[in-house]
Amino acid sequence: MIRAVIVDDEILALQHLEKLLLKTDQVEIIGMYTNAIDLLKVMKTLNFDVVFLDIEMPKLNGIEFAELIRDWNSAIKIVFVSAYRDYAIEAFELQSIDYLLKPITFDRLHKTVNRIVDQLQTSEKTVLLNETYTLKIICFNEFTVYHHNVPVKWKTAKVKELFAYLFTHLGDHIHRDTLIDNLWPEVEFERAKIQMHTTMSYLRKMLTSMGFSNAITFSNSGYTLSLNRFQCDAHQFERLIGDQHLITKDTFNVFEEIVDQYSGGYLETTGYNWAIPIASEIRQKFLQLLQRLVDFFNENGNLTKTEKYLQLLVLHNPYSEHVIQQLMRHYVTVGNRGEAVRVYHDMKNLLITDFGIPPDEATTKLYESIITR
């Protein structure tokens, strides 16, 4: 049962929404308020999952109050209610779960309630899974492994790299010679084979001490790593990328969460040469996702988010003149030609410094069209 609070300064609207919510048989009304100030005074004493917020209210409007709720408890779901569409962009920027237009119909509200149920169930499953995880593996930027939230101490650097390699190819059969070629490329084969066996022995003992006694199996001259009860930023990134295909007003916040998880390249600071192709593949998926977010927010008129993800694209892909051109055009659109000019010169200096070449003709023509307007 969803525990809900309703805030609307119109008594009839408040009662109408209450009636519809109770009709769904999925909602328990914890409290009803005719202004946000009254709820603000007591909300920390209440146990609720979602707040239905009218936007246009005296003293403290719904948008302002939603920001206070987000600061207090980001797990609270927010559904905005309004007779106008004008606030939709601001509402979605606050990652509200929905935006209901008055007069509210039962069918439309029922869809909202089902969406809330789905999100709450997902959150509960996530909490349950997190409680059962024994390994937390960070692959973006620095490679770090936590066992019961305590950083793993590696016997040697090679033990850490061996685990990173096997984990990168989790579930795959890796031939012994492939391991040697990737982890001991400069060592004579017979000596490398001894070092590989020693390192593998250390890794197996470490995993056994953490409760993974049969994690590494050997067959047909190769090794396979099998793990359960773990969470990994890179795995979650790949799963969410695979699960979510279309960016919509209902799903864009999921994609933004994916972006937030990308704190750096795959095993970026490790110096593992064998990880470079994998890192490149994941980076391309990340850049494609950023471009999709740019296109989505641009099409929906959210210039703030468009700029945010264009700037991220430039940060992660600074040599892309296509991205630079998009950012320059965006600044022209919002009336900030000075920033458009600065972006051009920054890239021009970068290209000349790093490659000794100027921007291409299309970028230069765009710049000239901006300064001559």
From TrEMBL:
Keywords: DNA-binding, Phosphoprotein, Transcription, Transcription regulation, Two-component regulatory system. The modification 4-aspartylphosphate is found at residue 54. Signal peptide: none annotated. Residues 3-117 form the Response regulatory domain. InterPro entries: AfsR-DnrI-RedD_regulator (IPR051677), BTAD (IPR005158), CheY-like_superfamily (IPR011006), Sig_transdc_resp-reg_C-effctor (IPR016032), Sig_transdc_resp-reg_receiver (IPR001789), TPR-like_helical_dom_sf (IPR011990), WH-like_DNA-bd_sf (IPR036388). It comes from the Bacteria. SMART domains: BTAD (SM01043), REC (SM00448). PANTHER family: TRANSCRIPTIONAL REGULATOR REDD-RELATED (PTHR35807). This is Response regulator.
